Write a sequence for this structure.
């Protein structure tokens, strides 16, 4: 299984009044992880947008395990959980510096035409990218 990793230095602005990372920031980190995974595979999400396609989030799930705090470094691990004709599920693990799990999650996406918002298979836009996702997906549909 191909796993991309991205380290993020936790900024003070990402914490709440209790001094822990505000829960919504994990979603931002997951987006950073997706972008890094796509880049590590040699593709470019911005290129899809330039061609007139978007990949909206259909569903998100996050399980918070252990709080993170200002000054720590989070490691976001990202992989393709599953990939089918119209849907891709990304998996995430956000780790503390000691390797303990701070959070896990998934996001489900579909690719749509920017103008019509009609779903479009990745295989029709970039067959090589689609094949790579199928190859590295943790679970097969």
């Amino acid at each position: 299984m191909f796993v991309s990793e991205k380290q993020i230095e936790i900024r003070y602005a990402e914490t709440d009044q209790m001094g822990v990372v505000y829960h919504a920031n994990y979603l931002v980190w997951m987006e950073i992880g997706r972008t890094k995974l796509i880049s590590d595979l040699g593709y470019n999400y911005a290129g899809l947008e330039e061609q007139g396609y978007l990949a909206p989030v259909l569903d998100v799930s996050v399980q918070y395990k252990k709080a993170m705090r200002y000054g720590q470094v989070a490691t976001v691990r990202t992989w393709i959980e599953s990939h089918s004709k119209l849907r891709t599920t990304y998996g995430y693990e956000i780790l503390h510096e000691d390797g303990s799990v701070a959070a896990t999650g998934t996001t489900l996406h579909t690719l749509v035409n920017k103008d019509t918002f009609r779903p479009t298979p990745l295989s029709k836009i970039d067959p090589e990218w689609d094949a790579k996702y199928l190859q590295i997906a943790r679970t097969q549909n």
